[in-house]
Design goal:
By secondary structure, the protein is α/β, with parallel strands linked by helices. The protein folds into two domains: about 250 residues, 3-Layer(aba) Sandwich (Aspartate Aminotransferase, domain 2), CATH 3.40.640; about 140 residues, Alpha-Beta Complex (Aspartate Aminotransferase, domain 1). It is built from 15 helices and twelve strands. About 0% of the residues have low confidence. The structure holds pyridoxal-5'-phosphate. The site of pyridoxal-5'-phosphate (PLP) has 16 residues, from helix 4 and helix 5.
């Protein structure tokens, strides 16, 4: 396998890591087999044959480079990991079967019984389960804080605090948490910071540059971006991956399938085109809904000046993202009427998809959280989360207008 299409020996003028993101996303990580295929090859194999007993021994001791078994590594998965690392500006990346496998590994890989975790309250439902329910079963204590209140992060740190976890913008309230400030607080407390960067996408926010130690993604969202496969990714320094993640993933086995890695790898080529288009439409949709004051009580979109943390969003992000959240007047009943009137926008719970999708968090993704805790998180009964797809903006606006009228 070669990393470069040029004849052997010809030096590259510029390394791919020094090129701009769109170029990295098309060419980064590509390894070619002896056939010189243009499109990245799909190595759908559980394992690899050795040329000799000695070579097998060498692969297992690590002295001989090469692949052994796809739970440990696979060329298609390695290409995906390398492309993600180049996009994020991270030294190392590890792909996982789902976003939740990435979040779980980022926590379990670092923690032991007796440790303590601090996390923002506003977390994706399953992430909250990990912190609130799962980790305590293994002797890891956790504290949930209002992520936007820096004093709460400071006050929650204890001598045994190992890591902080946050998501920004949060799902679904689109709260913005000051990543650089929380990273400083974590480091002062001797802890690491893990950021779930799904809503921002790797294009609009770079947590590692803001001081985070580890970034996790559900690649199911914008990376695939076409609603086909599940996947996740963990990105960090070589030291962080070696110390906390590498062995945990190898031995516990939440590996990404080579097929899914191949789908994701090809999707990365169009990530900037898709996210930029979805974001342009999201800005239009947010403004459109904000004017429908008869049906819509409040619109949340980080790039609008009426977003409570608009200034912070502008400071740490380069765009407002692809999701618009709003409160329909009249609570659950009105929100359901709005959703049921939609034709172009689909009712589902993915986001970052080519198809626009509306979700009612209170009865779906955040149903497990008791109503009082949901209200405290700012998730009301009338709240809808709208992920903007790639449809023509005028068809989307017509569909949304019909839904407003139905309310
Ligand atoms: C979807 C999502 C996850 C979980 O990802 P899966 O691929 O569904 O496992 C984690 N965090 C956030 C913010 C998400 O949106």
């Amino acid at each position: 396998m070669t990393e470069n299409a040029k004849p052997a020996g010809a030096p590259a003028r510029k390394s791919i890591a020094d090129m701009r993101p769109a170029t990295r996303l098309v060419h980064g990580g590509t390894m070619r087999s002896q056939f010189g295929e243009m499109s990245e090859a799909l190595f759908l194999t559980q394992g690899f044959a050795y040329e000799s007993m000695e070579q097998a021994e060498g692969r297992f001791t690590g002295e001989s480079p090469g692949f052994q078994y796809s739970r440990f590594g696979n060329p298609t998965v390695a290409m995906f990991e390398q492309r993600m690392a180049l996009l994020e500006g991270a030294q190392a990346a590890r792909a996982t079967a789902t976003g939740m496998a990435a979040v779980t590994a980022s926590m379990m890989g670092q923690l032991s019984a007796g440790d303590h975790v601090v996390a923002a309250k506003a977390l994706f439902g399953s992430c909250r389960f990990i912190v609130e329910d799962l980790l305590p079963r293994y002797g890891v204590a956790s504290t949930l804080v209002d992520g936007t209140d820096l004093d709460q992060w400071r006050a929650a740190a204890r001598p045994n605090t190992r890591t902080f976890l946050l998501e920004s913008p949060t799902n679904p309230q689109l709260e913005i948490i000051d990543v650089a400030a929380v990273a400083d607080i974590a480091h002062a407390a001797g802890a690491t910071l893990v950021v779930d960067n799904v809503f921002a996408t790797p294009l609009l926010q770079q947590p590692l540059q803001l001081g985070a130690d580890c970034v996790v993604y559900s690649a199911t969202k914008h990376v695939d971006g076409q609603g086909r496969v599940l996947g996740g990714c963990i990105l960090a320094s070589n030291e962080f991956i070696d110390k906390h993640i590498h062995n945990f993933l190898r031995q516990t086995g939440p590996s990404m399938s080579p097929f899914n890695a191949w789908v994701m790898l090809k999707s990365l080529e169009t990530l900037p085109l898709r996210v930029n288009q979805q974001m342009r439409s999201a800005e239009r949709v947010a403004d459109f809904l904000a004017e429908r004051t008869g049906a819509i009580a409040r619109v949340l979109y980080p790039w609008r000046t009426d977003h409570p943390q608009h200034a912070l969003a502008r400071k740490q992000m380069t765009g407002g993202g692809t999701v618009v959240v709003f409160d329909v007047r009249g609570g659950k009943e009105a929100a359901f009427r709005f959703g049921n009137a939609l034709e172009v926008v689909k009712l589902s719970n993915n986001l970052g998809d080519a198809k626009s999708i509306v979700t009612h968090p209170a009865t779906t993704t955040h149903q497990r959280i008791p109503r009082a805790a949901r209200e405290e998180m700012g998730i009301g009964e009338g709240m809808l989360r709208l992920s903007i797809g790639l449809e023509d903006i005028d068809d989307l606006l017509e569909d949304l207008k019909a839904a407003c009228d139905a309310v």
